[in-house]
């Protein structure tokens, strides 16, 4: 063999091994994977009938045995999608090429095009061959270059061309290609080609036929040698061996038409030489039959609409009689015409008929009974053993003959009739073809009783001729009069009944309120559309008519007559299936408006919903805003929700529920505004919960889609999870392998969306952690479809957050599952065991990585294993979990990929997206492994990386340092290459974890370069793009999420800076570990000391991500700075230094003391409080400290307790550690011990709200009372007072407000009161208290909650902030005032209608700055406010203020 290419041979109707071009080509090139794919759904209305399926089954079994004899076998696949099945084969076999023999029927043409398109997109070579025809259809054209439309010239042209004489022999042997588990193969029995009920009938076929390619060869040989010579003479007989019987073998490709043609032609040459004219005539007649078969495929290829509409123009005008009764009589052989009935009964019994009989019965149906030709063609397709769509299309459209003349001609003795009509067996030959003319004595003697044991003629011959003549006359009249199709004529006249031209408008309008005319128009449109398919949608008639059709349908649907609207909606559905969306975009808005109003009618809601859904799916983004306005005004979402609720009453079908749910899901996917109306409806949510627990998979899938769409809304997801167990149970069951693929994918999508935010993800995990993880790991390991595995990997990203789910990932052997995405079969492709050396592991890993198995999934593998490593426990050890080999090998592969990325250097950016993402994700994974809390993973990763980089380490490191030094020194403000920079920084961080390379980096100014880079990043932060190249593109749905308040991933925001700080931290750590103390380190690097501190403090206290801030604080801990500084800590520290605010004094052994506050100690350091601490007494309590307590260490501990930050000299460090350990201040102890921050840790905060809990509220020493004195729902858990109030602490209030501090220290009467009246509402008071204790002003409801609040509720929220704003001027709280102003202006931006009320309210408090700001927000809607009269209630001064703002807005281009 020239090559060793892996090729898939896709068998269809070419079930042979000899003269099979596709098989021969594949066998020449290398290993072969033969496959037969059965996808009944794709066959549509042309699903093979019983006899045809029986033949196919036998032929496939025969072919499989033949392939086995050649060393291979035929893989059978039953699927819902041919494209998916072939893609699975490609992935599982590693094939790089797919070959097949062409088919030419319309169904196959579309399928082959789709398959080829998908394969080419994925870089798979595709080659089709001619294995079914003498000539490809595109090779034969008339002189003008157009296809022939008549047989004679076509066949003459064919005979003038040469036919390839060399036929391909069967391969000597085949090199088999083995598929992995990704292919869902089955046996020929499991294809379902024959059911139990069909087997008795099929037993008759077994006696008469022997399917299979080798049997076809025998029959051909016998026919040529014995029967061909008399073929012309016997062709008129319908009994005996008068045909070749090759038609089913040719149809299923068990013998090549080229072989038949060449054999017959050779025989003709011999007979011509021998001057055997009868033989030549027979050969020519037979070859003409071959030509007609060729021509049928030629026509279907060049005119692919012929299976749906007439090829012959006169048939398009023919007035068919769609009489079901006549059709039933014809199909059952009860027409009263013996030759017709005999033929139909033979067909039913054997699945076969003589060609002449086929012509007779089809002519009878079409010309005598005037039955639609498509009915007959479909019946033949369902019953014929050799049902051939292309031949039947031509045959049924060219029926010409009359049966009675032919009856005597083709069965002169009546033998055929007697064989298949035993009731006429005794009828004399004279009368057998027309028993209705026989005398009664003859009938009686023959045992025939017309109308009893044999049917009377279904139609009189003369009547049939008369009806046919009239039909032909009407057809010709229509052709002459219009010169167009009858359906187009009917449509033209029907539409004209409703068009009205308005004088002042250029375009005519369709308006007709007559219901009968509307019904007539709808039916005319439907009939017209029946002439077309998607393949012919660009026909001129469609393009010319679409505008008028759309106008009529829009009016009829909008008229909403119950008798017509359903019919009209069904026509819209048909229109949408035929016409490309681009042609309907101009009318989509009108159709949406009409359908959305009609969907409210229960009788028509199903077709209207289906049609509306189909339109909405294809709405362009530019029109979405207009469409939503229509949907909103029509209250479409409310109507659909109400419709769905009727399902609980049992009034509608499952199909109806599915379609309504699909429509609602589509709306929610595209328009976030709609989701609130759904998740806020308790009745619908209850119904969905009920539906989710039903066993019907169709219902569950519909509910799943709705849940999945709702979960795009953060508020909706939170509501779903509040009572989410039934939903989550259904979701997980739908992810199971036994569920349909679409349900599995939707289940994973729902889980992914629920996991969008940290809080919601943990909610979900707490409910269903183990079963969720179990199904994720199983799908990653064993999922049959790549899409399933991709979605499972996406969901496995829940590992980025800490939680108990990590335990289950390890329990269910996640490393083994991830390894299955790296190597097809780890056990068989590697000889590794637990005793293999690291060198052996690396050698095997290199081979496996080079094989590039499932490259699109590789990035997921590295990210998932990286997150798992980052969140593993310190004591984690894979040996105790039985995953040592798998985990070690994953670590090796990741380190190897990372090492290659570092070595690629600049070339890394020149690769494709998948390769780039693998580089970054593998680098990040190695980083997480090296810095994993698990000593096992960390040491394994470090040792493996050290071994891999070997002698090249310093050279690689030198390149990294040089590259990084270029960025700050270049003077640029953007990164030259984000991915390369990422890999460079991660490389420095990883290399620096190895002591020898850390020393090398320090010697080469690595610390200074990293510090310069951090400073450069601070200056140019806004210009630095995202670091992630991972190929996880958001779907259009994920881009439309709303109302989510997500905790940022630790390494997502400012990831580049985090990696730089990781490397910097490692270098600082290495320096201290070598030199033992900070002074020597700083003395050596005095030049960078100040820069280092300044830069790190700016990062620590800035608005950077949690990761960079944590590592900045971690590095600063080496320099004596511990903790985080924030405004709340500074406030508390300022009050701590004021002794008059304290209520406890700690007395030291040296006579000094420290004034403290019990509430702070209770929250931050409860061990310093005396036991059994009671309620606030109003006096300062003194506590004497032990002489063993170091005074300075205790003071530093108190500083940290108040501010969350402390500076410590090295001389005090050890004593402070001891005290911190004793007092159980974990955060301080971690920093003092220089413990590395755990991945994902949040920034520590002073948790003052603990002071308001039931456990600590007894330290409260003041009550805050709002303006309200009565609230029906108010209930205090701490005291018996029923009036609204809030317990608080003087110290905390003093720390945030200079006014209150002065008040409490004034000595005036108010300073001693235990109740303080605050001139704000209860809502405002709760927000105010929150600010004092958290330094955060609670925001009003956001997203859809805010949008859907009524104006009064919004105003109530806004009023609370206005009241606080007013209070801040009195209490002198500038920071809080600024926070209030931001919230107020933000509310006005999203709800400008509140501007007037805000202006009034602010003016009543004399807050003129706020009045001016509100006036600016009212400026854009000034004219609207003026016209509505809302300004009339304002003072002239305020109106002038708004008018002035409006003028300025206008002048600025607003």
Automatic annotation (TrEMBL):
Domain Photolyase/cryptochrome alpha/beta stretches: 5-134
Cofactor requirements of the protein: FAD
Pfam families named in the record: ARM_6, BTB, DNA_photolyase, FAD_binding_7
Entries under InterPro entries matching the protein: ARM-type_fold (IPR016024), ARM_At1g04390 (IPR059007), At1g04390-like (IPR044953), BTB/POZ_dom (IPR000210), Crypto/Photolyase_FAD-like_sf (IPR036134), Crypto/Photolyase_N_sf (IPR036155), Cryptochr/Photolyase_FAD-bd (IPR005101), Cryptochrome/DNA_photolyase_1 (IPR002081)
Gene3D superfamilies: 1.25.40.80, DNA Cyclobutane Dipyrimidine Photolyase, subunit A, domain 3, HUPs, Potassium Channel Kv1.1, Chain A
Segment forming the signal sequence: none
Keywords assigned: Chromophore, FAD, Flavoprotein
Pathway this chain belongs to: Protein modification; protein ubiquitination
Domain BTB per the UniProt entry, residue ranges: 1260-1341
SUPFAM superfamilies noted in UniProt: ARM repeat, Cryptochrome/photolyase FAD-binding domain, Cryptochrome/photolyase, N-terminal domain, POZ domain
Family per record: Belongs to the DNA photolyase class-1 family.
NCBIfam families: crypt_chrom_pln (TIGR02766)
Name used for this protein in its record: Photolyase/cryptochrome alpha/beta domain-containing protein
């Amino acid at each position: 063999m020239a090559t060793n290419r892996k090729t898939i041979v896709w068998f269809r109707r070419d079930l042979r091994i000899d003269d099979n071009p596709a098989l021969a080509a594949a066998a020449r090139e290398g290993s072969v994977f033969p496959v037969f794919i059965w996808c009944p759904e794709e066959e549509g209305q042309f699903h093979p009938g019983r006899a045809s399926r029986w033949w196919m089954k036998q032929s496939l079994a025969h072919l499989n045995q033949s392939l086995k004899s050649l060393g291979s076998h035929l893989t059978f696949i039953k699927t819902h999608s041919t494209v998916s099945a072939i893609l699975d084969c490609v992935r599982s076999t590693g094939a790089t090429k797919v070959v097949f023999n062409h088919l030419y029927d319309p169904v196959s043409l579309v399928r082959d095009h789709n398959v080829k398109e998908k394969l080419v997109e994925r870089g798979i070579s595709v080659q089709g061959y001619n294995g079914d025809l003498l000539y490809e259809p595109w090779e034969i054209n008339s002189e003008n270059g157009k296809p022939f439309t008549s047989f004679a010239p076509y066949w003459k042209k064919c005979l003038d061309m040469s036919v390839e004489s060399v036929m391909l022999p069967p391969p000597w042997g085949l090199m088999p290609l083995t598929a992995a588990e990704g292919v869902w193969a089955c046996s020929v029995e499991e294809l379902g080609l024959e059911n139990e009920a069909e087997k008795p009938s099929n037993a008759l076929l077994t006696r008469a036929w022997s399917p299979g390619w080798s049997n076809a060869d025998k029959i051909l040989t016998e026919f040529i040698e014995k029967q061909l010579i008399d073929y012309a003479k016997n062709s008129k007989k319908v009994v005996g061996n008068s045909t070749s019987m090759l038609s089913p073998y040719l149809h299923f490709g068990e013998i090549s038409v080229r072989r038949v043609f060449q054999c017959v032609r050779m025989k003709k040459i011999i007979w011509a030489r021998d001057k055997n004219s009868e033989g030549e005539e027979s050969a020519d007649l037979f070859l003409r039959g071959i030509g007609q078969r060729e021509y049928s495929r030629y026509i279907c290829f060049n005119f692919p609409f012929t299976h749906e509409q007439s090829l012959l123009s006169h048939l398009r005008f023919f007035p068919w009689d769609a009489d079901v009764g006549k059709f039933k009589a014809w199909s059952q052989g009860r027409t009263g015409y013996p030759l017709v009935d005999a033929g139909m009964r033979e067909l039913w019994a054997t699945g076969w008929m003589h060609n002449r009989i086929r012509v007779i019965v089809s002519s009878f149906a079409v010309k005598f009974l005037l039955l639609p030709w498509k009915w007959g063609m479909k019946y033949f397709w369902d019953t014929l053993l050799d049902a051939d769509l292309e031949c039947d299309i031509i045959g049924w459209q060219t029926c010409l003959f009359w049966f009675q003349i032919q009856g005597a001609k083709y069965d002169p003795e009546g033998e055929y009739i007697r064989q298949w009509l035993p009731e006429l067996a005794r009828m004399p030959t004279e009368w057998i073809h027309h028993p209705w003319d026989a005398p009664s004595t003859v009938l009686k003697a023959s045992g025939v009783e017309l109308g009893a044991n044999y049917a009377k003629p279904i139609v009189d011959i003369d009547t049939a001729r008369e009806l046919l003549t009239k039909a032909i006359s009407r057809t010709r009249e229509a052709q002459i009069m219009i010169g167009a199709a009858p359906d187009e004529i009917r449509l033209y006249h029907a539409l004209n009944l409703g068009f009205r031209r308005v004088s002042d408008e250029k375009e005519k309008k369709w308006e007709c309120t007559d219901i009968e005319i509307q019904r007539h128009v709808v039916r005319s449109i439907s009939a017209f559309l029946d002439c077309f398919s998607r393949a012919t949608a660009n026909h001129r008639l469609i393009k010319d008519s679409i505008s008028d059709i759309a106008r009529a349908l829009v009016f009829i649907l909008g008229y909403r007559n119950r008798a017509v609207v359903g019919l009209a909606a069904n026509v819209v559905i048909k229109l949408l299936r035929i016409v490309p969306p681009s042609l309907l975009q101009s009318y989509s808005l009108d159709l949406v408006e009409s359908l959305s109003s009609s969907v409210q009618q229960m009788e028509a809601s199903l077709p209207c919903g289906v049609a509306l859904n189909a339109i909405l799916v294809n709405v362009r983004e530019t029109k979405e805003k207009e469409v939503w306005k229509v949907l909103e005004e029509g209250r479409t979402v409310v109507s659909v929700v109400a419709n769905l609720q009727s399902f609980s009453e049992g009034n509608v079908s499952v199909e109806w529920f599915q379609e309504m749910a699909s429509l609602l899901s589509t709306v929610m996917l595209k328009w976030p505004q709609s989701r609130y109306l759904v998740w806020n409806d308790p009745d619908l949510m209850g119904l969905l919960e009920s539906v989710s627990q039903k066993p019907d998979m169709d219902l569950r899938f519909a509910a799943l889609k709705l849940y999945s769409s709702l979960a795009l809304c953060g508020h909706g997801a939170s509501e779903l999870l509040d009572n989410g167990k039934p939903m989550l149970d259904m979701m997980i069951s739908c992810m199971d392998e036994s569920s349909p693929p679409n349900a599995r994918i939707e289940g994973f999508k729902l889980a992914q969306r629920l996991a969008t935010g940290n809080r919601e993800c943990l909610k979900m995990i707490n409910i269903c952690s183990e079963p969720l993880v179990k199904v994720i790991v199983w799908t990653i390991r064993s999922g049959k479809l790549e899409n399933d595995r991709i979605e499972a990997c996406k969901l496995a990203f829940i590992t980025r957050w800490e939680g108990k789910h990590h335990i289950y990932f390890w329990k269910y052997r996640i490393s083994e599952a991830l390894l299955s995405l790296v190597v097809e079969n780890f056990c068989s492709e590697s000889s590794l065991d637990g005793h293999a050396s690291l060198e052996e592991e690396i050698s095997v890993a290199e081979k496996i990585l080079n094989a590039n198995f499932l490259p699109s999934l590789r990035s997921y593998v590295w990210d998932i294993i990286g997150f798992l490593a980052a969140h593993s426990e310190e004591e984690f050890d894979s040996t105790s979990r039985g995953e040592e080999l798998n985990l070690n090998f994953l670590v090796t592969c990741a380190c190897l990929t990372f090492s290659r990325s570092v070595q690629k250097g600049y070339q890394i950016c020149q690769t494709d997206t998948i390769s780039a993402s693998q580089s970054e994700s593998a680098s990040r994974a190695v980083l997480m492994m090296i810095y994993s809390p698990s000593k096992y993973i960390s040491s394994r990763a470090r040792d493996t990386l050290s071994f891999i980089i070997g002698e090249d380490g310093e050279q690689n490191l030198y390149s990294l340092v040089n590259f990084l030094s270029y960025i700050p020194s270049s003077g640029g403000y953007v990164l030259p290459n984000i991915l390369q920079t990422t890999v460079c920084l991660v490389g420095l961080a990883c290399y620096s974890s190895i002591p020898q390379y850390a020393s090398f980096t320090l010697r080469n100014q690595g610390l200074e370069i990293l510090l310069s880079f951090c400073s450069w990043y601070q200056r140019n932060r806004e210009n630095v793009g995202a670091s992630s190249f991972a190929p996880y593109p958001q779907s259009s749905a994920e881009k439309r999420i709303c109302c989510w308040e997500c905790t940022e991933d630790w390494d997502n925001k400012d990831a580049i800076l985090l990696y730089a700080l990781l490397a910097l931290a490692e270098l600082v750590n290495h320096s201290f570990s070598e030199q033992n103390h900070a002074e020597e380190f700083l003395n050596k690097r005095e030049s960078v000391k100040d820069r280092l501190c300044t830069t790190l403090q700016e990062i620590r206290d800035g608005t950077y991500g949690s990761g960079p801030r944590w590592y900045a604080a971690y590095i600063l801990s080496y320099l004596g700075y511990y903790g985080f500084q924030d405004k709340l800590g500074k406030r508390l520290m300022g009050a701590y230094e004021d002794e008059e605010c304290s209520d406890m004094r700690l007395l030291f052994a040296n006579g000094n003391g420290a004034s403290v506050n019990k509430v702070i100690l209770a929250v931050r350091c409860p061990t310093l409080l005396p036991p059994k601490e009671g309620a606030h007494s109003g006096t300062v309590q003194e506590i004497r400290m032990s002489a063993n307590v170091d005074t300075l260490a205790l003071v530093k501990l108190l500083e940290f307790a108040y501010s969350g930050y402390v500076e410590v000299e090295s001389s005090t460090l050890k004593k402070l550690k001891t005290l911190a350990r004793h007092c159980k201040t974990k955060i301080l102890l971690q920093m003092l011990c220089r413990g590395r921050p755990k991945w994902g840790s949040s920034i520590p905060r002073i948790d003052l709200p603990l002071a308001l809990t039931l456990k600590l509220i007894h330290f409260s020493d003041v009550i805050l009372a709002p303006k309200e004195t009565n609230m029906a729902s108010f209930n205090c858990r701490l005291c018996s007072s029923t009036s609204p109030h809030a317990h608080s602490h003087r110290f905390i209030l003093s720390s945030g407000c200079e006014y209150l501090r002065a008040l409490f220290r004034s000595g005036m009467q108010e300073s001693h009161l235990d109740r303080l009246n605050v001139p704000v509402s209860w809502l405002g008071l709760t927000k105010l208290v929150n600010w004092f204790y958290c330094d955060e002003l609670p925001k009003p409801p956001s997203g859809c909650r805010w949008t859907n609040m009524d104006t009064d509720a919004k105003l109530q929220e806004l009023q609370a902030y206005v009241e606080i704003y007013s209070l801040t001027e009195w209490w002198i709280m500038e920071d809080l005032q600024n926070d209030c102003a931001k919230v107020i202006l933000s509310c006005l931006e999203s709800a400008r209608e509140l501007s007037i009320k805000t202006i009034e309210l602010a003016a009543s408090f004399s807050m003129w700055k706020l009045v001016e700001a509100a006036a600016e927000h009212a400026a854009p809607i000034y004219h609207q406010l003026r016209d509505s009269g809302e300004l009339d209630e304002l003072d002239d001064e305020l109106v002038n203020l708004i008018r002035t703002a409006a003028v300025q807005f206008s002048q600025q281009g607003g």
